[in-house]
Amino acid sequence: MTDHLLLPAAGVGRRFGHDRPKQYCTLADRTLMEWTLDLWLNVRLDGRRLLILAQSDSQGRDIARSYSNLDVAVGGEERADSVLAGLEALNAQEQDWVLVHDIARPCVRVEDIERLLDHCHRTGRGGLLATPVSDTIKRRDGDAVSTIDRRQLWSALTPQCFRFGELKQALASALSAGVTITDEASAMERAGFPVDLVEGARDNLKLTRPEDRALIEFYLMQQGR
Ligand code: C5P
């Protein structure tokens, strides 16, 4: 059984609102993409590492060339299309494990990644890093507002780790049904495969909005990187 890594980086980052994709914004001396790629150099994996880029992304290809053992695949319209394209390019064994990690999460900790992998290897069940929700969450349906019991709520982070064969089947099925899928776990849940939550650090933030940038810079500094 082998562990592979997919790094979806084919998004345009609409909510970030810059003229270029958010993975190319610079934090100190490096692009966000390089911060994330550098972190993964510290994780021992025996399989392939695949960076998923938009078709026309020459900057990403240039960056990828400076990392050894990093292959490139072309992504799709939505994140789930990109991940499925990455799985097709990976062409792994059914039982292999695939970690999927957002390129826009540079602060993930190596020890959290290793804990997730250990969990999957030990139990044979797929899972994801997640944190318990700390805000009180409201549901608005027209004028009706209700409160959801937050003791049951977790925020989904990445990496997410699933068996190659099951993940490919679950994503293909969700996409062909036209279901909106924003992470791998939701496709796995829909397909009836087990999904476990492994608690991860809260600083594993995704760069989504401009105000996240200063916080990510702070977390990287605090981690001594
Ligand atoms: O847009 P969002 O922040 O949810 O994207 C999460 C990750 O998925 C990012 O790393 C982004 O580059 C990637 N993505 C992708 N292909 C898309 C859309 C998003 O690889 N079509």
Automatic annotation (TrEMBL):
Ranges in coiled-coil conformation: none
GO molecular function, one term: 2-C-methyl-D-erythritol 4-phosphate cytidylyltransferase activity
InterPro entries per record: IspD, IspD/TarI, IspD/TarI_cytidylyltransf_bact, Nucleotide-diphossugar_trans
Catalytic reaction(s) noted: 2-C-methyl-D-erythritol 4-phosphate + CTP + H(+) = 4-CDP-2-C-methyl-D-erythritol + diphosphate
Enzyme Commission number: 2.7.7.60
Annotated site residues (Positions MEP for the nucleophilic attack) in this chain: R150, K206
SUPFAM superfamilies membership: Nucleotide-diphospho-sugar transferases
Pathway assignment: Isoprenoid biosynthesis; isopentenyl diphosphate biosynthesis via DXP pathway; isopentenyl diphosphate from 1-deoxy-D-xylulose 5-phosphate: step 2/6
Record keywords, A-Z: Isoprene biosynthesis, Nucleotidyltransferase, Transferase
PANTHER family: 2-C-METHYL-D-ERYTHRITOL 4-PHOSPHATE CYTIDYLYLTRANSFERASE, CHLOROPLASTIC
Function: Catalyzes the formation of 4-diphosphocytidyl-2-C-methyl-D-erythritol from CTP and 2-C-methyl-D-erythritol 4-phosphate (MEP).
HAMAP family on file: IspD
UniProt name for this protein: 2-C-methyl-D-erythritol 4-phosphate cytidylyltransferase
Taxonomic lineage: Bacteria, Pseudomonadati, Pseudomonadota, Gammaproteobacteria, Oceanospirillales
